[in-house]
Amino acid sequence: MTQLQDIVQEVRSKNAGPFWVTLEIFCTDDETFNRIKASPNLTKEKIAELYQVNSESMKRFDLETIRVIKYSFPRKNPSGHKYENDMHFGQQYVRLAEVVV
Asked: What's the mean pLDDT in 18-47?
């Protein structure tokens, strides 16, 4: 059982403005990039389920030239909202890093 974090260079999460967040997967080679790109556990629907957001609002970008896969989706509450628990979304990558690929 291989987790995403075991085969990629980096997995990170961050703000994409006050209303959106982004998850990024950085791959070191084409083989890994293609494996991640084709993984049934990394579809935008699966990531939406993992982060409990509507799959219709989930966006996925496969950036082949730099071997990066990005997911972006709206925040449940704007950044800085009184019910926001991670203003910069910087700690939310862990769920994605632990996905089995």
From this structure: 96
